[in-house]
DNA sequence: CGTCTTTGACCTGCGC
DNA sequence: GCGCAGGTCAAAGACG
Protein backbone atom coordinates (compact mmCIF):
# COMPACT_ATOMS: atom_id res chain seq x y z
CA UNK A 1 0.00 0.00 0.00
CA UNK A 2 2.62 2.38 1.07
CA UNK A 3 4.72 1.32 -1.83
CA UNK A 4 2.01 2.02 -4.29
CA UNK A 5 1.46 5.38 -2.82
CA UNK A 6 5.08 6.16 -3.25
CA UNK A 7 4.88 5.09 -6.84
CA UNK A 8 1.91 7.31 -7.38
CA UNK A 9 3.79 10.03 -5.74
CA UNK A 10 6.64 9.55 -8.10
CA UNK A 11 4.38 9.56 -11.10
CA UNK A 12 2.74 12.70 -9.96
CA UNK A 13 6.08 14.30 -9.58
CA UNK A 14 7.01 13.36 -13.04
CA UNK A 15 3.89 14.97 -14.30
CA UNK A 16 4.68 18.14 -12.52
CA UNK A 17 8.23 18.25 -13.53
CA UNK A 18 7.88 19.73 -16.99
CA UNK A 19 6.12 22.79 -15.75
CA UNK A 20 8.39 23.10 -12.84
CA UNK A 21 11.47 23.28 -14.91
CA UNK A 22 9.81 25.37 -17.49
CA UNK A 23 9.01 28.03 -15.02
CA UNK A 24 12.41 28.51 -13.64
CA UNK A 25 15.17 30.43 -15.15
CA UNK A 26 17.73 29.32 -12.75
CA UNK A 27 20.21 26.70 -13.61
CA UNK A 28 19.17 24.71 -10.65
CA UNK A 29 16.70 22.09 -11.60
CA UNK A 30 13.75 23.05 -9.56
CA UNK A 31 12.14 19.75 -10.19
CA UNK A 32 14.61 18.12 -7.95
CA UNK A 33 13.46 20.36 -5.22
CA UNK A 34 9.81 20.12 -5.73
CA UNK A 35 8.12 19.73 -2.49
CA UNK A 36 5.29 17.47 -1.92
CA UNK A 37 2.96 17.36 0.86
CA UNK A 38 3.13 14.28 2.89
CA UNK A 39 1.00 14.05 5.86
CA UNK A 40 0.21 11.37 8.25
CA UNK A 41 -3.37 10.53 7.84
CA UNK A 42 -3.63 9.19 11.31
CA UNK A 43 -2.76 12.33 13.13
CA UNK A 44 -2.72 14.87 10.38
CA UNK A 45 0.76 15.96 10.76
CA UNK A 46 2.20 17.00 7.55
CA UNK A 47 5.65 16.73 6.36
CA UNK A 48 7.72 17.78 3.53
CA UNK A 49 9.35 15.58 1.12
CA UNK A 50 10.91 16.05 -2.17
CA UNK A 51 11.43 14.13 -5.28
CA UNK A 52 14.11 11.62 -4.50
CA UNK A 53 15.17 13.73 -1.64
CA UNK A 54 13.55 15.10 1.36
CA UNK A 55 12.47 18.62 1.70
CA UNK A 56 14.89 19.25 4.39
CA UNK A 57 17.58 19.02 1.86
CA UNK A 58 16.17 21.77 -0.19
CA UNK A 59 14.68 24.00 2.43
CA UNK A 60 16.41 22.98 5.49
CA UNK A 61 13.20 21.73 6.82
CA UNK A 62 13.34 18.60 8.80
CA UNK A 63 11.48 15.82 7.21
CA UNK A 64 9.69 15.39 10.40
CA UNK A 65 8.35 18.84 10.21
CA UNK A 66 4.73 18.98 11.24
CA UNK A 67 4.19 21.62 8.64
CA UNK A 68 1.21 21.60 6.59
CA UNK A 69 3.30 22.19 3.67
CA UNK A 70 2.38 22.03 0.12
CA UNK A 71 3.76 22.48 -3.22
CA UNK A 72 1.61 23.33 -6.11
CA UNK A 73 2.12 24.83 -9.41
CA UNK A 74 0.32 27.94 -10.19
CA UNK A 75 -0.85 27.95 -13.70
CA UNK A 76 -0.67 31.60 -13.42
CA UNK A 77 -2.10 33.12 -16.48
CA UNK A 78 -5.00 30.78 -16.78
CA UNK A 79 -5.49 30.27 -13.18
CA UNK A 80 -8.15 32.55 -11.83
CA UNK A 81 -7.45 31.51 -8.32
CA UNK A 82 -4.12 32.71 -7.30
CA UNK A 83 -2.94 31.57 -3.96
CA UNK A 84 -3.28 35.06 -2.73
CA UNK A 85 -6.80 35.24 -3.86
CA UNK A 86 -7.34 32.11 -1.99
CA UNK A 87 -5.66 33.54 0.99
CA UNK A 88 -7.85 36.56 0.86
CA UNK A 89 -10.93 34.47 0.71
CA UNK A 90 -9.71 32.43 3.51
CA UNK A 91 -8.84 35.40 5.50
CA UNK A 92 -12.16 36.94 5.01
CA UNK A 93 -14.17 33.91 5.75
CA UNK A 94 -12.17 32.87 8.64
CA UNK A 95 -12.03 36.32 9.99
CA UNK A 96 -15.75 36.51 9.75
CA UNK A 97 -16.07 33.49 11.88
CA UNK A 98 -13.46 34.51 14.28
CA UNK A 99 -14.06 37.00 16.98
CA UNK A 100 -10.47 37.36 17.87
CA UNK A 101 -8.50 40.37 16.97
CA UNK A 102 -5.35 39.33 18.62
CA UNK A 103 -4.54 36.64 16.17
CA UNK A 104 -3.71 37.23 12.69
CA UNK A 105 -4.12 34.79 9.95
CA UNK A 106 -6.07 32.88 12.41
CA UNK A 107 -8.54 32.00 9.87
CA UNK A 108 -8.35 29.80 6.96
CA UNK A 109 -11.86 28.93 6.44
CA UNK A 110 -12.52 25.66 5.04
CA UNK A 111 -15.14 25.20 2.56
CA UNK A 112 -16.58 21.86 1.95
CA UNK A 113 -15.38 21.78 -1.55
CA UNK A 114 -11.89 22.90 -0.90
CA UNK A 115 -9.02 20.92 0.32
CA UNK A 116 -7.58 23.30 2.73
CA UNK A 117 -5.70 21.22 5.12
CA UNK A 118 -5.03 22.21 8.61
CA UNK A 119 -2.98 20.78 11.26
CA UNK A 120 -3.68 21.48 14.81
CA UNK A 121 -0.17 21.81 15.87
CA UNK A 122 0.52 24.56 18.27
CA UNK A 123 2.34 27.37 16.77
CA UNK A 124 3.66 29.39 19.55
CA UNK A 125 5.19 26.98 21.82
CA UNK A 126 6.40 29.63 24.19
CA UNK A 127 2.82 30.12 25.21
CA UNK A 128 1.78 26.60 25.40
CA UNK A 129 3.27 24.30 27.84
CA UNK A 130 4.22 20.89 26.68
CA UNK A 131 0.96 19.61 27.96
CA UNK A 132 -0.90 22.28 26.14
CA UNK A 133 0.87 21.45 22.97
CA UNK A 134 -0.04 17.88 23.28
CA UNK A 135 -3.53 18.88 23.99
CA UNK A 136 -3.81 20.85 20.85
CA UNK A 137 -2.41 18.07 18.83
CA UNK A 138 -4.68 15.57 20.36
CA UNK A 139 -7.69 17.62 19.46
CA UNK A 140 -6.94 17.05 15.86
CA UNK A 141 -9.80 15.23 14.31
CA UNK A 142 -8.96 11.87 13.03
CA UNK A 143 -10.76 12.47 9.86
CA UNK A 144 -8.67 13.85 7.08
CA UNK A 145 -11.66 15.70 5.87
CA UNK A 146 -10.60 19.22 5.17
CA UNK A 147 -13.63 20.74 6.71
CA UNK A 148 -12.98 18.88 9.83
CA UNK A 149 -9.51 20.17 9.81
CA UNK A 150 -10.71 23.64 9.44
CA UNK A 151 -13.25 23.46 12.12
CA UNK A 152 -10.88 21.83 14.46
CA UNK A 153 -8.18 24.26 13.68
CA UNK A 154 -10.45 27.12 14.32
CA UNK A 155 -11.54 25.72 17.56
CA UNK A 156 -8.03 25.12 18.56
CA UNK A 157 -7.20 28.64 17.70
CA UNK A 158 -10.06 29.91 19.75
CA UNK A 159 -8.96 27.78 22.57
CA UNK A 160 -5.63 29.37 22.55
CA UNK A 161 -7.18 32.73 22.12
CA UNK A 162 -9.14 32.09 25.21
CA UNK A 163 -6.01 31.03 26.93
CA UNK A 164 -4.34 34.19 25.90
CA UNK A 165 -7.20 36.23 27.19
CA UNK A 166 -7.02 34.35 30.40
CA UNK A 167 -3.39 35.11 30.72
CA UNK A 168 -4.02 38.73 30.05
CA UNK A 169 -6.77 38.87 32.58
CA UNK A 170 -4.53 37.31 35.11
CA UNK A 171 -1.88 39.75 34.25
CA UNK A 172 -4.29 42.60 34.69
CA UNK A 173 -5.17 41.19 38.02
CA UNK A 174 -1.57 41.11 38.96
CA UNK A 175 -1.20 44.67 38.02
CA UNK A 176 -4.00 45.61 40.31
CA UNK A 177 -2.67 43.66 43.18
CA UNK A 178 0.56 42.95 44.94
CA UNK A 179 0.48 39.34 43.86
CA UNK A 180 2.91 38.15 41.25
CA UNK A 181 6.57 38.76 41.13
CA UNK A 182 8.21 40.87 38.51
CA UNK A 183 9.86 37.91 36.84
CA UNK A 184 6.49 36.24 36.62
CA UNK A 185 4.93 39.26 35.04
CA UNK A 186 7.80 39.55 32.67
CA UNK A 187 7.46 35.95 31.71
CA UNK A 188 3.78 36.33 31.11
CA UNK A 189 4.25 39.37 28.99
CA UNK A 190 6.91 37.58 27.08
CA UNK A 191 4.67 34.66 26.45
CA UNK A 192 1.83 36.87 25.47
CA UNK A 193 3.94 38.76 23.06
CA UNK A 194 5.25 35.68 21.43
CA UNK A 195 1.84 34.21 21.06
CA UNK A 196 0.30 37.25 19.57
CA UNK A 197 1.24 37.13 15.96
CA UNK A 198 0.48 34.22 13.74
CA UNK A 199 2.47 33.56 10.69
CA UNK A 200 1.69 32.32 7.29
CA UNK A 201 4.38 31.31 4.93
CA UNK A 202 4.28 30.84 1.23
CA UNK A 203 6.81 29.26 -0.95
CA UNK A 204 6.71 30.74 -4.34
CA UNK A 205 8.67 29.77 -7.32
CA UNK A 206 9.67 33.10 -8.57
CA UNK A 207 12.49 35.04 -9.98
CA UNK A 208 11.33 38.04 -8.08
CA UNK A 209 12.02 38.40 -4.43
CA UNK A 210 9.46 40.98 -3.64
CA UNK A 211 6.20 39.52 -4.75
CA UNK A 212 3.39 41.87 -5.38
CA UNK A 213 -0.08 41.31 -4.01
CA UNK A 214 -1.30 44.83 -4.00
CA UNK A 215 -0.59 45.74 -0.44
CA UNK A 216 1.98 48.33 0.17
CA UNK A 217 5.05 47.37 2.05
CA UNK A 218 7.93 49.28 3.39
CA UNK A 219 11.21 47.55 3.77
CA UNK A 220 12.64 48.18 7.18
CA UNK A 221 15.47 45.77 7.36
CA UNK A 222 17.58 43.19 5.73
CA UNK A 223 19.70 40.60 7.34
CA UNK A 224 22.06 37.98 6.17
CA UNK A 225 20.80 34.54 6.94
CA UNK A 226 23.04 31.97 8.42
CA UNK A 227 23.89 29.16 6.03
CA UNK A 228 22.30 31.01 3.19
CA UNK A 229 23.87 33.25 0.60
CA UNK A 230 20.63 35.12 0.29
CA UNK A 231 19.60 37.83 2.69
CA UNK A 232 16.26 38.02 4.41
CA UNK A 233 14.28 41.15 3.90
CA UNK A 234 11.81 42.57 6.37
CA UNK A 235 8.76 44.48 5.27
CA UNK A 236 5.98 46.20 7.10
CA UNK A 237 2.59 47.19 5.79
CA UNK A 238 2.65 50.91 5.18
CA UNK A 239 -0.95 51.43 6.16
CA UNK A 240 -1.20 53.37 9.38
CA UNK A 241 -2.18 51.17 12.23
CA UNK A 242 -1.62 48.01 10.32
CA UNK A 243 1.17 46.06 11.86
CA UNK A 244 1.40 43.30 9.36
CA UNK A 245 4.91 42.28 8.59
CA UNK A 246 6.40 40.02 6.09
CA UNK A 247 9.74 38.46 5.60
CA UNK A 248 11.08 37.46 2.28
CA UNK A 249 13.81 34.96 1.91
CA UNK A 250 15.10 32.99 -0.98
CA UNK A 251 15.84 29.37 -0.56
CA UNK A 252 19.51 28.70 -0.47
CA UNK A 253 19.05 25.27 -1.92
CA UNK A 254 16.72 26.29 -4.65
CA UNK A 255 17.23 29.95 -5.49
CA UNK A 256 14.16 29.90 -7.64
CA UNK A 257 11.98 29.57 -4.62
CA UNK A 258 11.06 32.55 -2.55
CA UNK A 259 9.68 32.08 0.90
CA UNK A 260 7.40 34.82 2.05
CA UNK A 261 6.22 34.82 5.61
CA UNK A 262 3.41 37.04 6.80
CA UNK A 263 2.93 37.97 10.36
CA UNK A 264 -0.18 39.66 11.52
CA UNK A 265 -3.46 40.54 9.98
CA UNK A 266 -4.29 43.54 7.92
CA UNK A 267 -6.58 45.87 9.79
CA UNK A 268 -7.71 47.63 6.69
CA UNK A 269 -9.43 46.92 3.47
CA UNK A 270 -7.53 46.13 0.38
CA UNK A 271 -5.39 49.18 0.01
CA UNK A 272 -5.86 52.07 -2.23
CA UNK A 273 -2.75 52.57 -4.17
CA UNK A 274 -0.56 55.57 -3.67
CA UNK A 275 -1.70 56.89 -6.99
CA UNK A 276 -5.30 56.88 -5.96
CA UNK A 277 -6.37 53.71 -7.62
CA UNK A 278 -8.69 51.57 -5.72
CA UNK A 279 -7.78 47.98 -5.53
CA UNK A 280 -10.93 45.94 -5.49
CA UNK A 281 -12.47 47.64 -2.55
CA UNK A 282 -15.80 46.35 -3.59
CA UNK A 283 -14.93 42.82 -2.80
CA UNK A 284 -15.42 41.92 0.80
CA UNK A 285 -13.16 39.04 0.20
CA UNK A 286 -10.30 41.36 0.22
CA UNK A 287 -11.08 42.99 3.47
CA UNK A 288 -8.95 40.63 5.37
CA UNK A 289 -6.51 39.76 2.77
CA UNK A 290 -3.09 38.77 3.76
CA UNK A 291 -0.86 39.03 0.87
CA UNK A 292 2.44 39.57 -0.54
CA UNK A 293 3.22 42.74 -2.27
CA UNK A 294 5.83 44.96 -3.51
CA UNK A 295 6.13 48.40 -2.24
CA UNK A 296 5.35 49.85 -5.58
CA UNK A 297 1.99 48.28 -5.90
CA UNK A 298 -0.43 50.17 -8.00
CA UNK A 299 -2.63 47.62 -9.55
CA UNK A 300 -6.35 47.94 -9.56
CA UNK A 301 -7.33 44.37 -9.87
CA UNK A 302 -7.26 41.81 -7.15
CA UNK A 303 -5.06 39.40 -8.93
CA UNK A 304 -1.62 39.70 -7.54
CA UNK A 305 0.57 40.79 -10.29
CA UNK A 306 3.33 38.49 -9.56
CA UNK A 307 0.98 35.62 -9.95
CA UNK A 308 0.18 36.77 -13.36
CA UNK A 309 3.73 36.14 -14.18
CA UNK A 310 4.52 32.78 -15.57
CA UNK A 311 7.41 32.30 -13.27
CA UNK A 312 5.62 31.85 -10.04
CA UNK A 313 4.58 28.67 -8.47
CA UNK A 314 3.46 29.27 -5.00
CA UNK A 315 3.67 26.82 -2.21
CA UNK A 316 1.58 27.50 0.76
CA UNK A 317 2.37 27.14 4.34
CA UNK A 318 -0.35 28.39 6.51
CA UNK A 319 0.86 28.97 9.88
CA UNK A 320 -1.62 29.90 12.47
CA UNK A 321 -0.96 30.82 15.99
CA UNK A 322 -2.23 27.53 17.03
CA UNK A 323 -2.00 25.46 14.01
CA UNK A 324 -0.15 24.99 10.90
CA UNK A 325 -2.42 25.17 8.02
CA UNK A 326 -1.97 24.44 4.47
CA UNK A 327 -3.75 25.29 1.37
CA UNK A 328 -3.15 22.82 -1.30
CA UNK A 329 -3.57 23.62 -4.86
CA UNK A 330 -3.26 20.71 -7.08
CA UNK A 331 -1.71 20.84 -10.44
CA UNK A 332 -5.06 20.62 -12.08
CA UNK A 333 -5.14 22.85 -15.05
CA UNK A 334 -8.16 24.81 -14.00
CA UNK A 335 -6.60 25.78 -10.75
CA UNK A 336 -9.33 24.15 -8.78
CA UNK A 337 -8.53 22.37 -5.64
CA UNK A 338 -8.30 18.71 -5.46
CA UNK A 339 -9.59 17.14 -2.40
CA UNK A 340 -6.89 14.99 -0.98
CA UNK A 341 -9.38 12.41 -0.01
CA UNK A 342 -9.35 10.39 3.08
CA UNK A 343 -5.87 9.13 2.91
CA UNK A 344 -4.28 9.79 -0.36
CA UNK A 345 -3.36 13.26 -1.22
CA UNK A 346 -3.86 13.15 -4.91
CA UNK A 347 -2.84 16.66 -5.39
CA UNK A 348 0.63 15.58 -4.63
CA UNK A 349 0.40 12.04 -5.60
CA UNK A 350 1.46 10.82 -2.28
CA UNK A 351 -0.08 9.49 0.79
CA UNK A 352 -0.10 11.58 3.86
CA UNK A 353 0.74 8.58 5.90
CA UNK A 354 4.11 8.56 4.29
CA UNK A 355 5.14 11.28 6.54
CA UNK A 356 5.64 8.94 9.34
CA UNK A 357 8.39 7.22 7.50
CA UNK A 358 10.91 9.90 7.89
CA UNK A 359 11.25 10.99 11.39
CA UNK A 360 14.94 10.74 11.65
CA UNK A 361 15.92 13.69 9.60
CA UNK A 362 18.33 15.87 11.36
CA UNK A 363 17.16 19.21 12.53
CA UNK A 364 19.36 21.75 11.02
CA UNK A 365 19.19 25.39 10.56
CA UNK A 366 15.86 25.98 8.94
CA UNK A 367 16.17 29.52 7.90
CA UNK A 368 12.86 31.22 7.80
CA UNK A 369 11.02 28.06 8.41
CA UNK A 370 12.94 27.63 11.53
CA UNK A 371 11.20 30.66 12.85
CA UNK A 372 7.86 29.47 11.80
CA UNK A 373 8.27 26.03 13.04
CA UNK A 374 9.97 26.04 16.30
CA UNK A 375 12.23 23.30 17.38
CA UNK A 376 9.92 22.42 20.17
CA UNK A 377 7.05 21.91 17.85
CA UNK A 378 9.21 19.82 15.67
CA UNK A 379 10.43 17.73 18.49
CA UNK A 380 6.99 17.44 19.95
CA UNK A 381 5.71 16.36 16.65
CA UNK A 382 8.40 13.80 16.33
CA UNK A 383 7.68 12.52 19.76
CA UNK A 384 4.00 12.43 19.14
CA UNK A 385 4.42 10.59 15.91
CA UNK A 386 6.87 8.19 17.38
CA UNK A 387 4.46 7.37 20.14
CA UNK A 388 1.70 6.81 17.70
CA UNK A 389 3.85 4.62 15.58
CA UNK A 390 4.82 2.65 18.59
CA UNK A 391 1.20 2.15 19.41
CA UNK A 392 0.50 0.63 16.02
C1' DC B 1 8.58 66.76 -1.43
C1' DG B 2 6.94 62.36 -0.34
C1' DT B 3 8.03 57.68 -0.48
C1' DC B 4 10.97 54.00 -0.37
C1' DT B 5 15.48 51.50 0.05
C1' DT B 6 19.80 50.83 2.11
C1' DT B 7 22.57 49.76 5.87
C1' DG B 8 25.02 50.08 10.19
C1' DA B 9 23.79 50.12 14.92
C1' DC B 10 21.14 48.50 18.46
C1' DC B 11 18.12 45.31 21.04
C1' DT B 12 16.66 40.79 22.36
C1' DG B 13 16.61 35.88 22.92
C1' DC B 14 19.10 31.81 23.38
C1' DG B 15 22.72 28.42 23.94
C1' DC B 16 27.05 27.48 25.97
C1' DG C 1 28.66 36.53 31.20
C1' DC C 2 29.68 36.00 26.45
C1' DG C 3 28.92 35.35 21.70
C1' DC C 4 25.84 34.50 18.02
C1' DA C 5 21.85 35.17 15.27
C1' DG C 6 17.44 37.15 14.40
C1' DG C 7 14.79 41.18 14.40
C1' DT C 8 14.19 46.22 14.50
C1' DC C 9 15.40 51.10 14.37
C1' DA C 10 16.59 55.17 12.17
C1' DA C 11 19.56 58.20 9.53
C1' DA C 12 20.98 58.95 4.96
C1' DG C 13 20.42 58.69 0.28
C1' DA C 14 17.87 57.54 -4.10
C1' DC C 15 14.04 58.10 -6.87
C1' DG C 16 9.98 59.88 -9.27
Automatic annotation (TrEMBL):
UniProt keyword annotation of DNA-binding present? yes
Its domain of life?
Answer: Eukaryota
Sequence segments annotated as region (Disordered): 1-31, 126-197
Domain annotation WRKY: ranges: 206-271
Q: Which GO terms describe its molecular function?
A: DNA-binding transcription factor activity; transcription cis-regulatory region binding
Please state where this protein is localized: Nucleus
* Record keywords, A-Z: DNA-binding, Nucleus, Transcription, Transcription regulation
Pfam families attached to this UniProt entry? WRKY
- Protein name, please? WRKY domain-containing protein
Q: Which organism is it from?
A: Brassica campestris (Field mustard)
Amino acid sequence: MEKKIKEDHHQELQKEEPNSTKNTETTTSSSTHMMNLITTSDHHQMELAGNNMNLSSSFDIPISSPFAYSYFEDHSSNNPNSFLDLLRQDQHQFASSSNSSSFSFNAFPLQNNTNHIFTDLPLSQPVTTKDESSEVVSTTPTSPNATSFSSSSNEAANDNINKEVTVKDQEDGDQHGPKGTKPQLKAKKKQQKKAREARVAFLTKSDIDNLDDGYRWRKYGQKAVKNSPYPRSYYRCTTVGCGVKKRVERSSDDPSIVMTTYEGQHTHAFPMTPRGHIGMLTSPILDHGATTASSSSSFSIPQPRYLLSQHHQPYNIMYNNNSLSMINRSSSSDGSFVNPGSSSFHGFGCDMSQASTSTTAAIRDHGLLQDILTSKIRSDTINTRTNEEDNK
